[in-house]
Specification:
Its main location: membrane. It is a multi-pass membrane protein. It comes from Metabacillus rhizolycopersici. This protein is mainly α. Helices cover 66% and strands 3% of the residues. The protein has one domain (36-169). The N and C termini lie far apart (42 Å).
Length: 182
């Protein structure tokens, strides 16, 4: 079971990189500006090391699927629905980098009408949940903490860029970082 899920995870991440590259070209042609490029290599490293850590912990320590799999799999399935809802809602504006097209309206449809950063929520849940499925507790704890640290850097940079170049301030006026629309 681990090899199947791990393979699907790798295929998903690689396909997302192709989508992100296509969207990056589209945004740059429209005058898109990249922000946070100095921390982007650390995000890439975090995700690669997460996958490596997960693989090594499960294989090296002969970890098995947890007995609670029947509780965790539905949560994982729901996070995937939220992931793709987020990606499809952003359309060509979805990316793994922070690229802002000046004077475009911020996307506030789909899950973005309820959360400001649903894709980051999905990633946080996955980084915690996937290792738990296979009892890889060290990977779950370590990378949850590392991802939290990275998001405290990334989200403010993204929000500042959106406020400078879009109607972000008005669209999400009075809302906290992960608060639902009022």
């Amino acid at each position: 079971m681990f090899y199947i899920l791990f393979s699907l995870l790798i295929i998903q991440r690689i396909s997302e990189l192709f989508i992100a590259k296509r969207n990056e070209k589209w945004m740059l042609k429209r005058g898109g500006v990249e922000y946070g490029s100095e921390h982007y290599p650390y995000i890439v490293a975090l995700h690669i090391l997460f996958l490596l850590s997960l693989f090594l912990e499960v294989i090296s320590f002969h970890k098995e699927l947890t007995n609670s799999w029947y509780l965790l799999f539905p949560i994982l399935a729901l996070t995937q629905l939220l992931r793709y809802w987020s990606v499809f809602s952003l359309g060509y504006f979805w990316n793994t980098k922070i690229i802002i097209v000046p004077d475009e309206k911020v996307v506030s449809k789909g899950p973005y009408q309820y959360l400001k950063h649903p894709n980051y929520v999905v990633v946080a849940i996955e980084i915690f949940l996937i290792p738990l499925l296979f009892q890889a507790y060290l990977t779950a704890l370590l990378f949850t903490i590392l991802n939290l640290v990275m998001m405290t850097i990334r989200i403010p940079i993204e929000e500042k860029a959106l406020k400078m170049h879009t109607n972000y301030q008005k669209a999400f006026q009075g809302r906290s970082r992960f608060a639902p629309k009022r």
